[in-house]
Specification:
about 350 residues; MetI-like fold; globular
Length: about 350
């Protein structure tokens, strides 16, 4: 197992370089970079509409065919200072190597436009995404596992059919559409005004007692969680059901029943551990993805300033330190969690031996 872990750790290095390199290359051809945005602001142009010229990361200064779009009439020295300020005065390869060296040391630099470090911004936005991710994960597993077991036991029955229909419909309906419906119905839209529409807590949160803080916290989270949970448990439910069905049909289950064991003991004493292998082993990945890949649309609809909205605004504003910093962190965590999931497989089922398999 030690050599397998070592190989996986070493494989993370080229994987991270590949992810970051491809993303960095794509950015070179993306129009409307930070220098162009500054120029647009100086010229009084609408920065909401991205300029269609070549990317400021590659366009040289000077000359009508190589100048930034909209930069006519500006001092070339001023443009050069802007490039130096944003680090675009160096060749792309040098910038990429410098960036990766800084990221290896977990130095993610400062935001171009927010006057704060990337790490501080991530920490500041983390509570919102963590709250959504944590509770959605808990709700999802609390619903999915019992429901999946029940569907497996009642396979083919009316209960199995109508619950499958509900799951499929819930999975097919986009969460943001359901979120809009909840706002219309319960958040001051056209009917009731029961829930707030902005923020994770109220403005007077610090003045509340501890139990009032708990109520206020869940009061703000109710509608976003309902909107997200509509489709969150579909995959885990069906995965649990299929895993149990595979195990229930095996010979050792038939033998246990023939010995006269109660059905509950057969299910939870013999079937459960084997059937839940794939579900439990996937928990770390689900845990991290729930934290860091929360619904961007839900955050915007309910005015929740989380990591999803931070990344979206960074892409729109071409705030490259945030874009690449968050990409590096999330990619690294994804690779580490993938390794942890494999190790949990071997811990739950010692029969699995990754040493005999290629990485």
């Amino acid at each position: 197992m030690g050599s397998y872990i070592l190989r996986r750790l070493l494989l993370m290095i080229p994987t991270l370089i590949g992810i970051m390199g491809i993303s960095f290359l794509i950015v070179q051809f993306a129009p409307g970079g930070p220098v162009e945005q500054i120029i647009a602001q100086i010229q009084g142009q609408d920065t909401g509409d991205r300029l269609s010229g070549g990317s400021d990361l590659t366009a040289p200064v000077g000359g009508d065919d190589g100048q930034y779009r909209g930069a006519q009439g500006l001092d070339p020295e001023f443009i050069a200072k802007l490039e130096q300020q944003f680090g675009f005065d160096k060749p792309p390869l040098t910038r990429f190597l410098d960036m990766m060296w800084d990221y290896v040391r977990f130095d993610f630099g400062e935001s171009f436009f927010r006057n704060a470090s990337v790490i501080d911004l991530i920490i500041d936005k983390l509570p919102v995404s963590a709250s959504l991710g944590f509770w959605i994960l808990i709700i999802s597993y609390l619903i999915s596992v019992p429901l999946g077991i029940r569907k497996a036991v009642k396979d083919g029955s009316a209960f199995d059919v109508w619950t499958s229909g509900v799951i499929i419909v819930g999975y097919a309906v986009p969460s943001f559409l359901f979120g809009i419906l909840l706002i219309v119905l319960f958040a001051g839209g056209s009917f009731l005004d029961w829930f707030p529409l902005r923020g994770l807590v109220s403005e007077n949160f610090s003045q509340l007692s501890w139990w009032e803080k708990i109520i206020d916290y869940f009061w703000h989270l109710t509608l976003p969680l309902i909107a997200l949970s509509l489709s969150a448990f579909a995959t885990t439910t069906l995965l649990t059901k299929n895993s149990f069905l595979d195990e229930i049909r095996k010979q050792y289950v038939t033998t246990a029943r023939a010995k006269g064991l109660p059905e509950r003991r057969v299910l939870y004493g013999h079937v459960f551990r084997n059937a839940m292998l794939i579900v439990i082993a996937g928990f770390p990945s689900a845990f991290i993805s729930a934290f860091f890949t929360g619904s961007l649309l839900i955050e915007n609809i309910f005015s929740l300033d989380g990591l999803g909205r931070l990344g979206y605004l960074a892409i729109v504003n071409r705030d490259y330190p945030i874009v690449f910093g968050t990409l590096y962190i999330f990619s690294l965590m994804g690779l580490v969690v993938s390794l942890i999931s494999d190790l949990i497989y071997t811990w739950i089922d010692p029969r699995i031996d990754f040493e005999r398999r290629d990485v």
